[in-house]
Amino acid sequence: MIKNLLLLAASVILSLLLAELALRVVYPADFPRTSLLDPTLGWRPWPGASGWYAGEGGGFVSINSEGFRDVEHSLDKPPGTYRIAVLGDSMTEGREVNLDETYWKRLETLLGACPGFANEKVEVLNYAVNGYGTAQEYLSLKEYALKHHPDLVLLAFFTANNFTKNSEPLGRHRDRPYFALDDGQLKLVHKAGDERDFAWRRWWDGVVHRGLEPIRLYQFGKDAEGRLRILLRYGFERSAPQIESIGLDSDVYRAPITEAWKDTWAVTTALILAIRDEARAHGAAFLMTTLSNPIQDAPDLSARERFRKAIGVADLTYPDRRLAAFAAAHGFPDIALVDSLPAYAAEHEVALHGPTPQHPIGHYDRLGHKLAADAIAAGLCADEKAGLLN
Predict the structure, then answer these.
(1) Nearest Cα residue to 173 out of 55, 290, 43
(2) Among 335, 353, 352, which Cα is nearest to 344's?
(3) Which of 5, 97, 193, 285 falls 20 to 30 Å from 32 in CA-CA distance?
(4) How do the domains of the chain map onto residue ranges?
(5) 51 pairs with which residues across the strands?
(6) What is the pLDDT of residues 104-149, one digit of tens each?
(7) CB 273, CB 181: distance < 8 Å
(8) Which pTM does this prediction carry?
(9) Cβ-based neighbour number of residue 382 at 10 Å
(10) CATH superfamily of 73-195+245-385
(11) With left for phi above 0 and alpha for psi between -120 and 50, is residue 359 left, alpha or beta?
């Protein structure tokens, strides 16, 4: 009996070893999926991690020593350098493309051709992280970005899900920090470090990151799990191109009716002003860009129209228009990509999001990043010329 069990165990181990060797030949190394739990921010990528991201085409991802997707940057700003600190979520982090293809990295080259930046070297520092909401962006600005002495803080706001991420009732994420308004003042009411099991989960994430994530069988299984989740969410076959993104709440396209949506608009706009004020208090200018989302950028106009009618709104630009008006009322520039990217996608019948033209959902693809960079660079040049970045 014992002999048979030992033979069975040896057979299983040998089969797993052979499968691991085979996957190392045919399956590319995947980017580590476990984040480092952070008591205040909730999570950050593991410092020093690197690999190929498998989602939506994927790019090579390398995390610097601070825990952000970027190269290393000195604390002291080199002479003759104009530093831009970028805050955002996965749409900005851009794991789906290589580093030099992200819109924020492209700005370094594009702004060099702008007369206002002609005598300076533009250096863009990225603090965007997958899953972040405006609260995490505000806290990462205070904890990490400002110590690098940026000249400009650029907040990249993604309307499709940033509002829900800023609301505990709408977002319901145990590790995401949440703010509330108390007599008109922002108050941090929840953070990951408050959870009783935080220390244990952080230890376990370290075990997974160091012990399991280097194993191809584990990587392959996590990749398959993610793909299956998407298939179950959307179905295996669709007769029309897919335009609805996971995690999107269509209430973002209308004036808020519920208390939760009224509250998240109030908290979100208060957080935007807090980021503006924090930047200016440290001698940096502030600018916001409102990123376009997949439904707005759908290359098929009839698909946009079907979605608009299905949710019963006049158009799909309510959050963009309201944020632009808010920015104008509070004296800071807002570069709204909904003014240019949706028109380009429709005119040229090209996808700006997702892995294929048949599934133009998810994050910006290479073309989306390029167009976003062009639009933001043009806006930055115009704002600098108008003196709005002083």
Answers:
(1) 43
(2) 352
(3) 193
(4) 1-28, 73-195+245-385
(5) 61
(6) 999 999 998 888 888 889 999 999 999 999 999 999 999 999 999 9
(7) no
(8) 0.89
(9) 14
(10) SGNH hydrolase (3.40.50.1110)
(11) beta
